[in-house]
Amino acid sequence: MNKKELSEIKKQYTKERCPATRICGCYVDGEKNKQTMFREAFLSLEEEAFFKYLNIFRKVMSGTIGKNLVTMEFPLETEQEGGTQEFLMKLKYSGLQDDGVLEEFYDKVIASYDYTGNYLILLLHAAYDVPGKSSDNLEMFDASDEVYEHVLCAICPVNLSKPCLSYNQLENCFENHIQDWLVEMPQTGFLFPAFHDRSSDIHAVLCYHQKPEAPALSLVNEVLGCTLPMTAGGQKESFELLVEETLGEECSFEAVRTLHETLNEMIEEQKEEPDPLMLGSGEVRRLLEQTGASNEKIEAFDQHFEEVVGEQNTEFVAANVAHTRKFEIKTPEVVIQVNPDRADLVETREIDGRRYLMIEVTDEVEVNGIQVKFSENVANISET
Questions:
Q1: 7 vs 12: CA distance, rounded Å
Q2: Phi, psi of 169 (to 5 degrees)
Q3: Angle at 101 between CA 96 and CA 105, to 5 degrees
Q4: Within 10 Å of residue 20's Cβ, how many Cβ atoms?
Q5: Rounded CA separation 69/28 (Å)
Q6: Which residues contact 233 (CB under 8 A, 6 or more apart)?
Q7: Pairing between strand 365-367 and 370-372?
Q8: Is there a contact between 106 and 112 (Cβ–Cβ < 8 Å)?
């Protein structure tokens, strides 16, 4: 799913538009025992509970696509009888009204979700009447093309509130506050089926992870039957290794700066597009060619790409591997951070046989928050 598709579904989750029909939940303790289960008509909830649940499910659709929001396609075998996708279809078609299907889903989550502590499994069934669009791309709410029936799942930690003193207004005094078990924002969840081209895509699922570098792998593998692509951090490390391995001794400061500038320009040009900029082997090869790498290095690129990336991921999300907020130069003793748009302020020089990083400065220089002045008598250093 891209930003536009995700936004269309997420904006339905308001009090006025809410497409939800039914909510179900299962509270699991730290010993993996089911403490309680419930099922209710979502629109019949009390107003305060309605909005709190709504915020939880909106969170499952929040974040950065390609980082903590990942769309995955189901392997073909999962769509066969007894497969994970086939079971999710059964869950959706039941409208969350089949106790046997719900119980089986809860059992699958409990068996695979690796979490120490209490948590709440929440399920929401919804049906969005997708409005048609006119030739000038305006929505026609009285001309629906289809109903997007879907299920949202959110798995939320349940923890004790911190001990504290509270004010008792009736008694006009402060007293010990009884600790409560509080439902926190979800750590993981999913939307099934995915919403592609303003239509249901039963061959894909959108997965959410609060901490993208610590995804619920067992849950994804066993409940969804999918394989998560490389994490954002993993993509960044692999991309950096690929550049170093390919360029070798040609991996100069100037080459990396050119790579940084070119990649950020590509991201800037693509920023209004709904789909994130992806870098396959062809795009990465062209990036390296623009650094001035020799033909010998470029010819060895495919081998390095296969060795570093392998079959884990054939594309990088550009935003995951680029440094759009800073241009950082690091040595064992010094770290220099530059505005990413002004990487040109830093250059390399060799003076008296020693290598230096040269930074052009103006009169506005601070050291530990104190503005300093440069003497007009400072001698100029000439390049040898």
A1: 9
A2: -70, -35
A3: 95
A4: 22
A5: 25
A6: 212, 213
A7: antiparallel
A8: no
- Residue 131: asked if its preceding bond is cis (omega within 30°), the reply is no
Give how far the C-alpha of residue 29 lies from the chain's centroid of Cα atoms, to the nearest Å: 28
CA angle 289, 295, 301 (to 5 degrees): 70
**Residue in the structure block whose two tokens are 């506005």:** 364
For residues 327 and 343, is the Cβ–Cβ distance under 8 A?
A: yes
Distance, CA of 55 to CA of 179 (rounded, Å): 23
In the block, which residue shows the tokens 């994130």? 276
| pTM attached to this predicted model | 0.84
Q: What is the pLDDT along the chain (384 residues), one digit of tens a residue?
A: 999 999 999 999 998 999 999 999 999 999 999 999 999 999 999 999 999 999 999 999 999 999 999 999 999 999 999 999 999 999 999 999 999 999 999 999 999 999 999 999 999 999 999 987 655 556 565 556 789 999 999 999 999 888 888 888 888 888 888 888 899 999 999 999 999 999 999 999 999 999 999 999 999 999 999 988 889 999 999 999 999 999 999 999 899 999 999 999 999 998 889 888 999 889 999 999 999 999 999 998 988 888 888 765 578 999 999 988 888 888 888 888 888 888 888 888 888 888 888 888 777 888 878 888 876 655 454 444
Residue with tokens 């239509």, as numbered in its chain? 199
Sign of CA dihedral 286, 288, 293, 297: negative
Compute the 3-state secondary structure of the chain and give helix, strand, coil in percent, each to the nearest 5. 35, 30, 35
Of 147, 142, 143, give the one whose Cα is nearest residue 129.
147
Rounded to 5°, angle at Cα 257 from 235 and 312: 15
Residues in Cβ contact with 86 at an 8 Å cutoff, skipping those fewer than 6 apart:
78, 79, 80
Closest CA to 21 of 168, 125, 143: 125
Q: Please report, as a single letter, which amino acid is at residue 350.
A: E
Distance CA 57, CA 121 (A): 12
